[in-house]
Amino acid sequence: MATRDIALTINGRAYQGRAEVRKTLADFIREDCGLTGTHLGCEHGVCGACTILMNGEAVRSCLLFAVQAEGADLRTVEGLADGDRLHPIQQAFWENHGLQCGFCTPGFLMTTVEFLRDNPHPTEREIREGLAGNLCRCTGYQNIVKAVAAAAEVLAAAKQGARGRRRTSGHLPAAVKSTPRRRPKVRRAGPARARRRRSGGTTR
């Protein structure tokens, strides 16, 4: 089977590996990059458990080949938390009991990231429609909807607060503005067991 070199960025870190052209992006993320927070359910693009962000857009990673992600910027559930501090969406799911077994949770979280980015003040109906492509094996939809609504309020308040701080803080010093961004370190993809990653508070 033909193989190809693959270089991409996941959660701000560069990864390089070699994979068969038939290998799915979900399997490459889990097996070659060691990021097992992305879960595989139906493997037909129906359940949404494997949802990640690819160049800012929610995609089913089980329906893409790894070679199709060459040069792409990916974000998985491992990239949500800031160290030990949960992302507001993760915190809302925790506080509103929006997960039970946790298997579907990574897909719901990543779907919600895109959904609230595009619709920061959703109605309940819009939330239900936005999450319609994700299936919950424990049928906990009511609390998931509540969690997304709660997250929307927290994110909107944080955004409003940030705007207020910008209005009162004035302009940043030139030295701060011109600080160059560090280039991400390239990590060689390998067996998952060699580099286990946190799964964003969910179970495998």
Oligomer: single chain
Domain module count: 1
The CATH architecture comes to: Roll
Give the strand line-up of the largest sheet: 4-3-5-1-2-6
Mind summarizing the main beta sheet? 6 strands, mixed
Low-pLDDT runs of 5+ residues are: 172-179, 193-204
Count of helical stretches: 6
Report Rg.
Answer: 18 Å
CATH level 3 topology: Ubiquitin-like (UB roll)
Structural class determined from secondary elements? alpha/beta
CATH superfamily: Beta-grasp domain
Name of the level-1 CATH class: Alpha Beta
Give the terminus-to-terminus CA distance.
29 Å
For the secondary structure, the number of strands is 6
Topology:
Layout: E1 3-10, E2 13-20, H1 25-32, E3 51-54, E4 57-60, E5 73-75, H2 88-95, H3 105-118, H4 124-130, H5 141-169, H6 174-177, E6 186-188
Parallel strand pairs: 1-5, 2-6
Antiparallel strand pairs: 1-2, 3-4, 3-5
Helix pairs in contact: 2-5
Structural account:
The protein is an alpha/beta fold and 204 residues long. The protein has a single domain, classed as Ubiquitin-like (UB roll), CATH 3.10.20. 34% of the residues lie in helices and 15% in strands. The chain contains six helices and six strands, in the order ββαβββαααααβ. A six-stranded mixed beta sheet has the order 4-3-5-1-2-6, sandwiched between helices. Strand 1 and strand 2 form a beta hairpin. Helix 2 packs antiparallel against helix 5. The protein is globular. It starts with a strand and ends in a 16-residue tail after the last strand. The C terminus is likely disordered.
